[in-house]
Amino acid sequence: MSATRRITYREAVREALREALLRDPRVFLMGEDVGRYGGAYACSSGLLAEFGEERIRDTPLSESAFVGAGIGAAIGGMRPIVEVMTINFSLLALDQIVNNAATLRHMSGGQIAVPVVIRMATGAGRQLAAQHSHSLECWYAHVPGIRAVAPATIADARGMLWTALQEPNPVVIFEHATLYSDEGEVPAGGEFAVDIDRAAIRRAGADLSLITYGGSLKKALAAAETLAGERIDCEVIDLRTLRPLDEETLLASVRRTHRALIVDEGWRSGSLAGEIAARIAEQAFFDLDAPVRRVCSAEVPIPYPRHLEEAATPQVDTIVAAARGLMRR
Amino acid sequence: MSAPAPHKVRVTREHARELLRQMILVRRFEEACVEQYGAQKIRGFLHLYIGEEANAVGVMQALTPEDAVVATYREHGHALIRGIPATAVMAEMFGKAAGCSRGRGGSMHLFDASRRFYGGNAIVGGGLPLAVGLALADKLRGLARVTCCIFGEGAAAEGEFHESLNLAALWKLPVLFVCENNRYAMGTAIERSESVPDIRRHAEVYGIASETVDGMNVVDVEVAARRAAEAVRAGEGPRFLENHTYRFRAHSMFDPDLYRDKAEVETWKKRGPIVRFSQWVLETGTLHQADIDAIEAETAQTIADAVAFAEAAPPEPVEDLLRDVYAPRPAAPEPPAP
Ligand SMILES: Cc1ncc(C[n+]2csc(CCOP(=O)(O)OP(=O)(O)O)c2C)c(N)n1
Ligand SMILES: [Mg+2]
């Protein structure tokens, strides 16, 4: 195995940003408080000093305008990385992303490319209450013309950005806010870039496919550990790319294990978990030994108190319980 | 103290005491929040109002119980002065069901419909359209009430700010817009986010009469707010106040506060609303040190009671997780005859 280093998710994002700025003069970063403040999650600290105000652009609180400007700048020949502080505020820019970024290529008959990368923090888990705890990744994954990715590991946080910048299409990157301080391994040097096409098997197993992404991956892995003690052998799939879905990896896993449990922090109704369940039902129905199950967020705006927030969102114990149910234990 | 000439208020001893008491209540409440945050009783984001007290206190003097208030996540002070008991506000911070939002909202989402206090909005600019709608309802219902909409200067860059001002002016709606311009939106100084940092000029573009106010001077704020609220109540359409103020603490408990000069903070602290007003009441003999000591003692008791109440309040049972997502529905109408 080649040499690795341990860094945090936050450092991985920062290194990836820095690398992109160094390697491609067309790249610039813009968003609220990305400069002086160093980013709401400190992902861009130090970059203003190194790259200056032209390339590290603090924006006013104008999500629609600066996301739209990122889309325009991408059309105009730049490679913008737009940081929206959180997915909650991206709702103010939804029009630009859905009506412009996603459609311009098609509406123009293929004349216009929109190579913009939009990053945003997502998810619950920090007691920030309803307006600051949304997991709306599936809204973006719903839209043709957008590529949606969710780095769940430090290596993906380090490697996905560069690949996204090579895309001729708009890419939205979702960073779960509970991940930033987590540590993990990245290559010690050389090439960091990773694909943004394939799901990854994070843990091989024979009894059950645990399918998840983003902030729920670590919970799924912890649940798999617990279940291993009960001799339930879980395969844990990290979707990585939410649109387009890597059906091949998903379905191959389900065909091996014959059982699927999907863990998704989005609300159950209309969730990405629902889409995955449908695809399994459509294409692997006769391989299943049990109905597909889902662990999603409860159908309630995320409440502030810790015990209620935990009860509203997927947790290790609810995943374990659902897996036992699936195995009839 | 410089009260503007046309509307000089006579600050009686009782009124001076009340203004000071309210500012001290907000200050001590916020200090208690810091302590409880340290003890991990309060979690999540916590945005303190320390330094800005004169704004909530001054503006609230101009409102009647029938008026409505729409505020932001930096709203503890407004909630307290609007009359939500400190016990209910602190219990909300603790996430207890005895809180003013049943604990579901926390520090950023204080509500009290009975006092027409409509939050507690944590999306910058999100409260402005809401305020326009509340005022529209009053106008349509023929009620001479004011909707007071409070927001930071950062909101002035959002589309919702401009859309709301235009709508309120176009339809002559009874909104009192109050911009608490504390010069920073998180780490971004106003000069670095506004092409025209003079926020009131944005209001004027929409034909809304506006005023800049010394937001560190509670009497100035009260005078300006009374004048503006009277005009709004009289059906003259919206009014806009830009209050110049400053937050003495970081944006939130997560903010290392590295983007501004310590000297700048110190300069503003010298102009602090409580320090200055206390000085004035003492120098003019309006109040005596014993009065201030009594206010402090009374406030300390209020805060201690609030913390004890929040501490003792039971957590909400998990079985209730799904409540209050939808209102109970009236019985379904009979299906139409075939
Ligand atoms: C639409 C939106 N964008 C970004 C944020 C993150 N945010 C929360 S408060 C804040 C600063 C707002 O500054 P200002 O309006 O001046 O109010 P202040 O905090 O100074 O009272 C930011 C950027 C948000 N809550 N909502
Ligand atoms: Mg501000």
Automatic annotation (TrEMBL), chain A:
Cofactor(s) the protein needs: thiamine diphosphate
A Pfam family of this chain: Transket_pyr
Keyword Iron set for record: no
Gene Ontology molecular function: oxidoreductase activity
Transketolase-like pyrimidine-binding domain residues: 7-182
Residues making up the signal peptide according to the UniProt record: none
Keyword annotations of the record: Oxidoreductase, Pyruvate, Thiamine pyrophosphate
Entry function: The branched-chain alpha-keto dehydrogenase complex catalyzes the overall conversion of alpha-keto acids to acyl-CoA and CO(2). It contains multiple copies of three enzymatic components: branched-chain alpha-keto acid decarboxylase (E1), lipoamide acyltransferase (E2) and lipoamide dehydrogenase (E3).
Family matches, as NCBIfam families: PRK09212.1 (NF006667)
Record-given protein name: 2-oxoisovalerate dehydrogenase subunit beta
UniProtKB/TrEMBL annotation, chain B:
Annotated GO biological process: pyruvate decarboxylation to acetyl-CoA
Catalytic activity entry: N(6)-[(R)-lipoyl]-L-lysyl-[protein] + pyruvate + H(+) = N(6)-[(R)-S(8)-acetyldihydrolipoyl]-L-lysyl-[protein] + CO2
Primary role: The pyruvate dehydrogenase complex catalyzes the overall conversion of pyruvate to acetyl-CoA and CO(2).
Enzyme Commission identifier(s): 1.2.4.1
Oligomer status and interactors: Heterodimer of an alpha and a beta chain.
Ranges where the Dehydrogenase E1 component domain occurs: 22-317
Enzyme class, broadest EC rank: oxidoreductase
Descriptive protein name: Pyruvate dehydrogenase E1 component subunit alpha
Pfam family, any one: E1_dh
Keywords associated with the record: Oxidoreductase, Pyruvate, Thiamine pyrophosphate
KW Phosphoprotein (keyword) present: no
